[in-house]
TrEMBL record:
Organism: Halomonas urumqiensis
Coiled-coil segments on the chain, per record: none
GO molecular function: hydrolase activity
Assigned keywords, A-Z: Hydrolase, Membrane, Transmembrane, Transmembrane helix
Transmembrane annotation, as ranges: 57-75, 87-104, 124-146, 158-177
One Pfam family of this chain: YdjM
Domain of life according to the entry: Bacteria
Stated name of the protein: Hydrolase
Length: 355
């Protein structure tokens, strides 16, 4: 989630745990601790793929954060002026604030390495978009009231309760969408294909379903208010014939570990040179993918892996037409919104007749 949300969550938890004893200080300290894991963004690994795949890495590990929470609790118990707060309470304060940060991140699409340094794929069970005002607002109101009144306990707890209830709703909405898409995928022989079900930007009422079937990528939108409307799949090529070349390089293997199989490969002319580009299909929206990386260049009819990869500039994030159409689609299945409306036609294989 975004840093404002993480600070608000940390402040709310701080108030809920030690607000009665520390008042506003519990909220302020909690907000500061809540953003601590995201300081890894200042690290530059000298490579675009490394920077993306190492983010939410060691600093989001539950193992690392457990140790850090223990250390901070010991220091607080030893040096904090509030001598009557027991060590167990300090540990609960630090532990909950630090460890809820990666757990919340794991409820988004990006992928969070909560089990670092174990060699497992990043955890991601997306039920909220990386920015969701309906989750953040109750937390902000709660800590705002606490700062204004000096009562650091009651309002943060209320904010936490409302925000948590919203996550429960989002989880239920995802289950509903998965239930609606199951028969459609089964009818097309895609029941066992890798799929990703995630909310569209800034809401939990309209969901994007991405399915990868070997060389193809299927997309559809499913809304909570769609009723008996049958989801319609659109099919795109993901350039899988170039995947073998990408996996020959360490950078390509790292990206596959991070996002595979939800990757598209294409050959593009960059600075007058034929370049292999990989795009993460999970993040963003069809036609608006923010993460594309150079992997190799063709020299004398052979692909040569790049020693240092670069992230290409993505399409404008401020496409008002796309956001406006998504907003209209949230409340009704018609008129049909087709993701292919925003994707270059050379990638399109098939789409419903209604599009």
């Amino acid at each position: 989630m975004d840093s404002i949300t993480q600070a608000a969550l940390g402040g709310a938890i701080g108030g809920a745990v030690l607000g009665r004893r520390l008042g506003r200080k519990a909220v302020l300290i909690g907000a500061a601790l809540g953003t601590l894991p995201d300081l890894d963004v200042i690290l530059d690994y000298g490579d675009a793929i490394a920077n993306v795949t190492e983010h939410r890495g060691f600093s989001h590990s539950l193992f690392v954060l457990t140790g850090l929470a223990t250390l901070l609790a010991l220091l607080a118990r030893r040096f904090a002026p509030a001598r009557d707060i027991p060590l167990s309470r300090w540990w609960l304060f630090c532990g909950l604030i630090l460890m809820t940060h990666p757990l919340l991140d794991a409820l988004t699409t990006y992928g969070t390495q909560i089990w670092w340094p174990l060699d497992v794929r990043p955890a991601a069970y997306p039920i909220v978009f990386i920015i969701d005002p309906l989750y953040t607002l109750p937390l902000l109101v709660g800590i705002g009231v606490a700062m204004a009144t000096g009562n650091g306990l009651r309002a943060p707890r209320a904010g936490l309760a409302l925000a948590t209830a919203y996550l429960v709703f989002a989880f239920g909405a995802k289950l509903l969408v998965e239930h609606r898409i199951e028969p459609v995928l089964a009818a097309q022989g895609l029941a066992e294909a890798p799929r990703l079900v995630q909310p569209t930007p800034f809401n939990t009422l309209l969901w994007r379903v991405t399915v990868v079937d070997g060389v193809d990528q299927h997309e559809t939108l499913v809304g909570v208010f769609d009723g008996d409307s049958t989801p319609q799949l659109e099919t795109f090529s993901r350039g899988a014939e170039r995947e073998a070349v990408a996996l020959q390089s360490e950078k390509g293997q790292r990206l596959d570990w991070f996002a595979g199989p939800f990757l598209r490969y294409e050959s593009a002319s960059i600075d007058g040179q034929e370049t292999l580009v990989a795009t993460d299909l999970r993040l963003g929206f069809p036609g608006f993918y923010p993460f594309s990386f150079t992997l190799a260049t063709r020299e004398a009819d052979e692909w040569q892996p790049l020693m240092v990869t670069q992230q290409l500039e993505g399409p404008s994030r401020g496409n008002r037409e796309a956001l406006a159409r998504l907003g209209k689609r949230i409340l009704a299945p018609t008129p049909l919104l087709c993701t292919s409306d925003f994707v270059p036609r050379q990638w399109l294989i098939s789409r419903p007749s209604q599009c």
